[in-house]
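haha ok so turns out i had the wrong file open the whole time. this is the CORRECT one, sorry everyone. sequence first:
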Amino acid sequence: MKITLRQVILIVFFLGALFSVTDSGFIRVFRGSDFPANNESGLSGSRPHPKNSAKNISINPRAFVLVLVDPEGNEEVLAQKDGDAEYPVASVTKLVTALAVENIFSPSEIISIPSDILKGKGGSERFRAGDEYRADELLRALLIESNNDAAEAFSHKKGDEEFVGEMNAIAAALGLENSKFVSPSGLDGARVNRSSARDISRVMKEIFLRHAKIASILGLTESDICSADGSSCYRATTTNALLLDPQFPMRIKGGKTGDTPRAGKNLALAVGTPTNGWTLISVVLGSDDHFADTKKILEWAKESYVWP
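then structure:
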């Protein structure tokens, strides 16, 4: 069977809509309104639609994913690169740590800072051995400034094996097929916490749909952290520079950073879209500049879609 030049052009155009290749690497871009397969996402009829003029995303992390979530929790992947591949995730781990804390401890439960955790790497030098804090105070330290001592104090209080077991139980309940947690902090070690960009996007979706307290903390730029008796206070400042960026293209709801030599620079971020009630979740893993890459992804989303 002969193929005409017109047919060749149509085939090339169709493949171009499925796959986008940039100078910096391979990126797969899903255009939901063009292909029936994505209609199974369950997104409402008022969903945004891709522009024909949409450009490529020029970034090169190990992996990333961009997910659109509607007010009912239905979702669609708009773009990804190696979204299901497992990578070290560093302190992005603490999203799952926070869910475990919420399951195990009441906000007012007293957590003591054990002396042995203060001697390990990644210590914050914020606490003294024997200091006591309410769980909700340490939770803010955990998420705002990514405090490793807070993560270890929670784990020590419950028992390390049981606490990490709870983290993995949460991962299983959320359907995270490419995630395994071995510590509450995400620090590099003989073994490291591993997950995928897609799995982390599911954790973010869970938090922003069903865990309002954690979600609100992820959007804070700073907070005072005080001991249970009020004798000692300090101010925790966010590790997420995008929360302080007045030029960011969309309204940030919250996010979590992670950065170690093995994991590279990682960032999970949720933003409100121009369509009220919808959320975009971006996850970047193994980047050289997680803030710049995330900003490019969300600028692409804003410019490449028609938002009703």
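The longest helix spans residues 290-304.
again sry for the mixup
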